[in-house]
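Pipeline run #58 for the internal structure catalog. This entry was flagged by the ingest filter as a single-chain record with no existing model, so it goes straight to prediction. Upstream metadata was stripped on purpose; only the residue string is passed forward. Reviewer on rotation: M.T. Logging verbosity set to normal.
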Amino acid sequence: MGKLTDQVAIITGGSQGMGASHAKLFVSEGAKVVITDINEEAGNKLAAELGENAIFVKQDVASEADWQHVIKETIAHFGHLDILVNNAGITYAKSLFDVTTEDYLKIFKINQLSVFLGMKYAATEMKKTGKGSIVNVSSINGLVGGAIGYTDTKFAVRGMTKAAALELAHSNIRVNSVHPGVISTPMIHQGDTDDAVAQFAKMIPMQRIAEPEEVSKMVLFLASDDSSYSTGAEFTADGGLTAQ
């Protein structure tokens, strides 16, 4: 029997990278998973690979109407909702002076507004069954400084997590944040970045970047009853980077 047997989870940004890793692990642990993403081709491919316990729903995470649609599809297919993993996110490798207002608002909508909308609509459904777990994927840049826009929104996710955890505790809904360091995903392999990533890895106490599965195991812990007394907390997976 898996850690998530008969549990139903929504995972945003679930078609590739960490999101896909979370989806695969959740299904292997007995969950029914709703994968959402704007990448329809990759999302449908992953859902087909995972079988009858996974479906794909195309979603713009910054759209309130899309959130309502995702919740409706989740209930129609699987009957209830137990877990939300707010995983979708983007970043720009630009300086303060080069980030446009359009850039900034896009980062805000995908990284921060989506988390608010997801928690609002997921918690509304979870309250009907009297339990739930929400896992918000932030970053080590929700703990220490980094790129403008990305850092801002990831700090906000950390704060939103704590505020929601306090409000939802009486409804038996837990809310925690995960703060990954440098993870081998498409986000950090944009363009010719491999040399820069390899150099940065030398600064990490564990001398390597992480695989997505290493974060997924932490997300699984927070989604499951193994973390039944943890809420409003941040959990870091960074190879010791922020301990320096």
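catalog note: DSSP finds seven helices and seven strands in the chain.
catalog note: The chain has a mean pLDDT of 95.
status: ready for reviewer M.T.
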